[in-house]
Specification:
Protein name: DUF8021 domain-containing protein
Organism: Hyaloscypha variabilis (strain UAMH 11265 / GT02V1 / F)
Strand content: 25-35%
Structural class: alpha+beta
Number of domains: 2
Pfam families: DUF8021 (PF26061)
Bound molecules: 2-acetamido-2-deoxy-beta-D-glucopyranose
Domain DUF8021: 151-262
Keywords: Signal
Oligomer: single chain
Number of strands: 12
Length: 278
C-alpha cells in the first residue's frame, strides 16, 4: 500500500463516478491512461486509480511517486491486452531512448471500476538479453491483430498453451503446442531472426525448473495470455530464488505463435557475465 498525493485522491474520487464495470471499453481507457501517465511521468493522470492501490516493481512495493511511473519517457511502442473476465490488463512498453532505454511489462488489477494493483517489471541494460532497439524491431514485424470471432480460442485453450510452456520447464514429457512459424523475443534477442517462417521456439527448455506464482491476464480477442511468474535460476548469482518475469503469449488455433519476455536480473547479466542470453 502506498500514500498518494492529494491530487490522486481527488482524481480517484472523480474517477469513481465512471459507471462502466470491467467492459473492454473501460479497460482500454485504463490502459490508455496508464500509457499516457508513463509517457508524462505523471501518475496523477490515472484517474481510475484507487486511493489505496498497490504499486509494485519487480515484486517489491515502491512509492508510485518515485518509481518508474514518475519518470517521463518517449514511448516508441505500446500494446495492451484486456481481460474482461478477471478485470485485469497487461501492457508492453518499449522505450529506445539510447540514454535511458526500457522494456516494461505492467499488469493492472481492478476492483469495481478502480485500479487496485499496478505491478511492473521495468527492464533496462543489464537485464536478460536486453536490447530495446531489437525488441522494437522484431515486435514491429509481428502481427498481433485481433483474431476474427469465429477463429478465437477459449480462455481455457489460451491459458493452457501458456501454462504448457512453463509446465514443460519442470517435466520433459509435457508437450508444448508450438505453431509453425513460432518465434520468441527475449529482451531484444529473437529466435526467429534466421528463419521467420520456421518453428524456432522449440530450441530447448529447462527440465527441472519449477516456475512459481503464475498470474494470468487473458484476452480472447487478441489470442493473448500474459503470465507474471517467479523464474528460479534465471539470475545465476541468486541461486534458486525466483526472479521477476513476464511472458506474453500470442496463441492462434491453440498453438503458440509468439512469446515476448520481460525478465529482470539482480546482477547485470544475470550472473552470466554478459548481457546476451546463454
Ligand atoms: C472512456 O474515456 C472516455 C474519454 O475520457 C469517456 O468519455 C468514456 O466514458 C470512457 N468509457 C468508459 C467505458 O469508461
Ligand atoms: C482499499 O479500500 C477499499 C475501499 O475502502 C477496501 O475495500 C479495500 O480492501 C482496500 N484495499 C487494500 C489493499 O487495503
Ligand atoms: C500507444 O499506441 C497507440 C497505437 O497502438 C498509439 O495510437 C498511441 O499514441 C500510443 N500512446 C503513446 C502514449 O505512445
Ligand atoms: C539490438 O538489436 C538490433 C536490431 O536487431 C541490432 O541491430 C543490434 O545489433 C542489437 N544490439 C546489440 C547490442 O545486440
Ligand atoms: C517422462 O517419460 C519417461 C518415459 O515414459 C519416464 O521414464 C520419465 O520418468 C518421465 N519423466 C517425468 C518427469 O515424468
Ligand atoms: C525455415 O523453416 C521452414 C519451416 O520449418 C523450413 O521449411 C525452411 O527450410 C527453413 N529455412 C531455413 C533457411 O532454415
Ligand atoms: C562471473 O564472474 C564472477 C567474477 O568474475 C565469477 O565469480 C563467476 O563465477 C562468473 N559466473 C559465471 C556464470 O561465469
Amino acid at each position: 500500500m502506498i500514500g498518494l498525493p492529494s491530487i490522486l485522491s481527488f482524481a480517484a474520487v472523480v474517477g469513481s463516478t465512471v459507471s462502466a464495470d470491467c467492459t473492454r471499453a473501460f479497460l482500454q481507457n485504463a490502459t490508455a491512461q496508464y500509457v499516457g501517465a508513463q509517457s508524462s511521468g505523471n501518475p496523477a493522470l490515472l484517474t481510475v486509480l484507487a486511493t489505496n492501490a498497490s504499486y509494485i516493481e519487480s515484486e517489491k512495493p515502491v512509492s508510485i511517486r518515485t518509481g518508474v511511473l514518475s519518470q517521463p519517457m518517449k514511448i516508441d511502442h505500446n500494446r495492451s491486452i484486456h481481460d474482461t473476465t478477471n478485470c485485469a490488463t497487461f501492457t508492453e512498453l518499449i522505450v529506445t531512448n539510447p540514454s535511458k532505454p526500457y522494456v516494461i511489462g505492467t499488469r493492472m488489477l481492478f476492483t469495481g471500476n478502480q485500479i487496485t494493483t499496478i505491478e511492473s517489471i521495468a527492464t533496462h541494460p543489464g537485464d536478460w538479453a536486453f536490447n530495446a532497439t531489437g525488441y522494437l524491431y522484431w515486435d514491429s514485424l509481428e502481427n498481433w491483430d485481433p483474431i476474427p470471432a469465429a477463429k478465437q480460442d477459449s480462455r481455457a485453450v489460451i491459458q493452457t498453451a501458456g501454462d504448457a510452456y512453463f509446465n514443460r520447464f519442470g517435466n520433459v514429457n509435457i508437450t508444448v503446442p508450438w505453431d509453425t512459424p513460432c518465434a520468441r523475443l527475449e529482451g531484444g534477442a529473437y529466435t526467429g531472426a534466421n528463419n521467420l517462417t520456421g518453428e524456432t521456439c522449440d530450441l530447448g527448455l529447462p527440465s527441472t525448473t519449477v516456475v512459481t506464482n503464475r498470474r494470468f491476464v487473458i484476452d480472447e480477442t487478441l489470442g493473448a495470455v500474459d503470465i507474471f511468474l517467479g523464474f528460479p535460476g534465471l539470475d545465476r548469482s541468486q541461486g534458486d530464488k525466483p526472479m521477476p518475469d513476464s511472458h506474453l503469449f500470442r496463441v492462434e488455433g491453440g498453438k503458440i505463435r509468439y512469446i515476448h519476455t520481460v525478465s529482470s536480473c539482480v546482477e547485470a547479466g544475470c550472473g552470466l557475465n554478459r548481457t546476451g542470453p546463454p
